[in-house]
Each structure stands twice: as C-alpha cells, then as structure tokens.
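It would be a great kindness if you could assist me with a short task in structural biology. A protein sequence and the structure tokens that stand for its backbone fold form the material at issue. I should value your view on which stretches of the chain appear to form regular backbone elements. The record follows directly beneath this note.
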Amino acid sequence: MARARYEPSEQPQARLSDGTIARIVSSGFTSGYELEVDGTPQSHVDLDDPTYLSFEYVARMGAVIDRLRMPGQPLTAVHLGAGALTIPRYVETTRPGSRQQVIELEQALVDLVREHLPLPRGASVRMRIGDAREGLGRLPSGLLGQVDLLVSDVFAGAQTPAHLTTVEFYTAAARLLAADGVLLVNVADGAGLTFARRQVATVQAVLPHVIVLAEVQTLKGRRFGNLVIAASASPLPTDWLPRLMAAGPHPAKVAQGAELDEFTRGARPATDADATPSPKPAASVFER
C-alpha cells in the first residue's frame, strides 16, 4: 500500500550517544524511506517491497546473498550494524525462516527504526545492543561455526571505526562462519583506495577466498564510493561471477585472483596496533 511521505518538519528523529541526529526521511529519488545519521544517508527501506535495494552496494550484497546455498533456503545470519535493517528485511523476505542476529551500538537508533520502519510481523531477528566487536564475543556459543552469512556494515557517522577494520576483528568474526559461510564487508573509500586496498589485504590475511564487487570507476579509485568484499574459507563458486556481473547495478565489476593480487600489491594488513578509521567523505558526496 502507499505510504505517507514525511515533510521536513515531521521527520522522525533521535539523538544518538555521540550527539549526532538520526532521522528518517522520505526518499528523494525512489519510493520508501532513508535513514540519515548526521546528514549522511545510511540505509534505504521500501516497506512495501523489502526486496528493492536502492543503494548500489546493498544491491551487490543482495546479489551475493541470493547465491548462498539453495535459493529460498533459510540462512543463519549475523549483522554488525543495524542501519534501517535493510539486509535483514531482504533475507527475511527472500529466505523465510532464517535466523538472524543484529548487533547495533545505538539503542536510540534501534528504537527509531522499530517504531517508524517496523520489521515484518513474525520476523526472527534478534537485536543486541553494544559494540559490534564486543558483541561478537557475547553471541550464543552455538553460533560458532554455524553462520551462513556475516555482514559487517558499521559506521559512526560517515566512517567505519578503526577497531572494526583489523586482522584481530576479522579473525573473531570468521570463527562464526560455517565452512562455506560468507563474510560481506562494506568498505567506503575515495581516490587512490588506500583504505580499501588495506581492507582487502586484511580480510585476505584471515580468509583465503576473496572477491570484490564495485562500480567500475570506484574500483579504479576515480571517485568516492562503496566496495563490497565477499570472503570465505571455502572457494567461492566460479559460476557466481557472470551472475554477479549480470545482476548489476551497472557498470559492475567483480575483481578476483590475479586482478585482486594487483589491487592489494604493497598493502599491509591492518592490526589493532596501527589501524585507522575509514576516510571521511567530502560533504558534496551526499548532496541531493
């Protein structure tokens, strides 16, 4: 059914622990709503069609998720960072019966989303409040080695915190994965891709099979954008690649093998001793 649009004076909002404001706004380009934090778009949700993934990097994540196990088969999933719960909604809709856990630092953000962008009735999504890295250690022990999908998409404002970018962090996360489970990481970077190259090298130090999905110009380091890292302890099926390319958004690029080795040449994995946050984008990146 049609949903009401929020006028600027009516936008639901909440103040987060760092003083920034999270608000829900009507999407200016598509149907549905966007969650903004400190003016930075974080998530898009279409309540009438949770399979519609507006943000390009989220659509690329969805294309990978579609190829996990058999289509429609329930998954065990863990999400680090809630946003507007776009991916949990997608998994719930495309793979009914999935068991999902979400770790989010901000209770106020979770309350805002739950009230104004509610999950589908009956969705099996458990919300846990706390730091994503600390929360990994508090998940039920029965999840160790059982998770089909682990999504890391954590931002404080427009940046990923340094402690969620390291070998130590990814090692702790990888312990949850099933033998053929897949880790998906959203990486935001700009010209030169120094941070992204280091992130790929860091994930490769933990999980041996890695591909990267991005828009062509972003992968070439010519503009600020999002890259999706997909990684696993098991080989990622080669038949994924043409399907991922065809799934778009276009122009799409999937980097693997020798191309990825060249991409990370000279990049040193990040550790707790020397990690940095992701670069902060210029304000113009998010101008409407």
DSSP finds nine helices and twelve strands in the chain.
